[in-house]
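Input record (Table S2, row 494):
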Amino acid sequence: MRELEHWIGGKSVAGASGRRGPVYDPAQGVQTASVPLASAEEVGGAVEVAAEAAAEWGAGSLSARAGVLFRLRDLVARAAPDLAAAVTAEHGKVLDDAAGEVARGLENIEFACGIPHLLKGAHSTEVSSGVDVHTVLEPLGVVAGITPFNFPVMVPLWMLSNAIACGNAFVLKPSEKDPSVSLLLAELAKEAGLPDGVLNVVHGDAVAVDALLGHPGVAGVSFVGSTPIARSVYEAGARHGKRVQALGGAKNHMVVLPDADVDAAADAAISAGFGSAGERCMAISVVVAVGAVGDALVDAIAARVPSVVVGPGSDPDSQMGPLVTAEHRDRVRGYVEGAESEGARLVVDGRSGERPQGFFLGCTLLDRVRPGMRVYDDEIFGPVLSVVRADSYEEAVNLVNESPYGNGVAVFTRDGGAARRFERDVTAGMVGVNVAIPVPVGFHSFGGWKSSLFGDSAMYGPEGIRFYTRPKVVTTRWPDPATSEIDLGFPRTR
Ligand code: NAD
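Output record (nicotinamide-adenine-dinucleotide complex):
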């Protein structure tokens, strides 16, 4: 069994806390590695190493930083199959899906390659007689990233690409469930020429997270994970005077209007509901069927479920892999077990998809789901798709807007006017029009509303640059003996 180590100061460092956690191959259901769980002292040591590296890196030239990012882009692209295989081995998602995750992560490195342009700042000449003003964007110093299990390559790249491009040093605390691939990323960054200590990987659990949140040397924290932890990370980070962006969970609705193409909507519901076994924060969890489309849509989705090939992620024929742990599979199964007693109609029962080995669960389709049922109210994070019937457009939009979450939402329609109205009516951060998973490309920014994001900054793209820098505004006057005078009044423009 592999014994993983931390990555601090450009090299592997053995865990010293004496605490370790198991890492599984979800397709086999067996432990394949153990991961060290850092103590507060180990976290402190990594932050100190990062702080030392940050001073030099942040003062270095933009072209040097861009050069590292260009090389990292090429190395990650070349290593994409290995990275995808490492994701599949510990997360369980199918290889093609893992490759898609790497490709979406690459977008963030590509965006960050433009850092000389992105940090241009602003200049105003002659704001007053003989006075100029310019704004520069300076790095924060050491920033930390705490990431979830479901995108072990993409989410770290959401954060670290822009963080290091802006001149910060980064301490990554990846999910302890699938930690190996973060070490591969760190090795590639070193190969790309990133100075030691600018990117560090410290494994751990709540102890490591609390240590990062309480460490005075950490200036900013990016978090992605479940809503209760996101909320507490935001509150604790803010209490310690840090800049925090904390992205939480979701319950994404796909509204299907009566004029929609039923086959296209059913295809999208299957893909977005069961892709990655529903373990995506942008997965569609609820299909809202408006008016007469309901029966035909439920029939079309149900007819497609048996065609989803469930199997090990490493098998190229598989379309959906296992869930990440046995515990999580059991939790998701609990929702399926309780759905009928809550009043839902169990159209397809995913429990038949369980296997003697591995953390598998098949696709479940529920109809006649209503708010107040656990399957509707809770984020399930598994292959369970609920259909809610709505009589009108207004009822559908109210469902979306009354959800405590506001990550992604989609509308399926052929009516441009209805889509335009929907876009304006819904309270969610990312909206898809005939696009079920509207994850923004790397040069826009990603973030939900309501309990899907705590803090005022979305992730990556322009918002990422803003988060990882602080502006300094410099007002300059060069002495001109001809105009020099004593004036005790408050400076005014002249
Ligand atoms: P999680 O909240 O359990 O864990 C996320 C991170 O927090 C991990 O690094 C974990 O080690 C750490 N953590 C866990 N418990 C902690 C505690 N008590 N105190 C401090 N830190 C703790 O989330 P997960 O199960 O890894 O990931 C799935 C969740 O992430 C889902 O809710 C999903 O919606 C969400 N997610 C959100 C987005 C988004 O962009 N909004 C993206 C991906 C995942």
